[in-house]
């Protein structure tokens, strides 16, 4: 039996914001739909949490991003809940972000109580897994923008692996030290279990309707892709290896490891890395490339760094801080302007998803794109 609790992001309106300095993160790229966001806690009673050591069932947090065909009313909401915002304000103050930066951020969402009928489109499903020691909420604007192109998106927090996870009752779980090879392998296996579990829940009509009301997912399992950043990229490939019904995967700047390096994949997979992260510099990319037996592509983004593939560059840009941060911050945020970097990610991710889940064309992916000269086609 699965225990599940849901609240809409509208609940965040009850949490205080610094209204005088509130900043809205924009939707980037070719927005076709408004997006409603719901946050949920899911518990897998058939699986123990390997990090607690007390026989507790595995519980995770997810956010769903639901494209709405006719949104009657939008409103501004907090970017993340208060304890998470405070934690990240403290964490990133070391990199020059003023205290209160995360607490000042907002996003514009569709009011789930004020919307018209859902689109009749059978939207594919996208599951997202972020970097180790990183909250799923650091990718909210990016994933909202991807959903706005016509995809049902679920982002997953992996407790004890993420730096902080805030549950619906206000309980927070901070990350453990996951640095040894054994710990990383355990984290990878746990993440794969989380992804498999979430996908299975899409066949549960009650849960699916809470996350994506009006889409009747309990009656069908849509085409699905898994996207991951950093360790999440390795997770995407391993999840595909375990669940052959996953249609495609995308690795954003993550090194690869695990059984998939030898077993390979027989479904489409894409690699996108920061400057100088290619098959020539990362042996794991070379290894997985040789084992992908279906459509594949590799892209290098000049001027990008590891955390360019998150909301952080956009956050520093909208706060007017990108040119003021210490030079060493470029080592993990890159030098590409934040709005442009987010548009780049959304463009290439949505083109990949259109190709593998909607029978789109690969021309936009493999041909030179004048809008994003930073992107170099590899392999």
From TrEMBL:
MF terms in GO: 1-alkyl-2-acetylglycerophosphocholine esterase activity
EC number: 3.1.1.47
Entry keyword RNA-binding: no
Keyword NADP assigned: no
InterPro entries attached to this UniProt entry: AB_hydrolase_fold (IPR029058)
Pfam families: PAF-AH_p_II
One record GO biological process: lipid catabolic process
Signal sequence coordinates: 1-22
Enzyme type, top EC level: hydrolase
Keywords attached to this entry: Hydrolase, Lipid degradation, Lipid metabolism, Signal
PANTHER family tied to this protein: PAF ACETYLHYDROLASE FAMILY PROTEIN, PLATELET-ACTIVATING FACTOR ACETYLHYDROLASE
Name of the protein in question: 1-alkyl-2-acetylglycerophosphocholine esterase
Source organism phylogeny: Eukaryota, Fungi, Dikarya, Ascomycota, Pezizomycotina
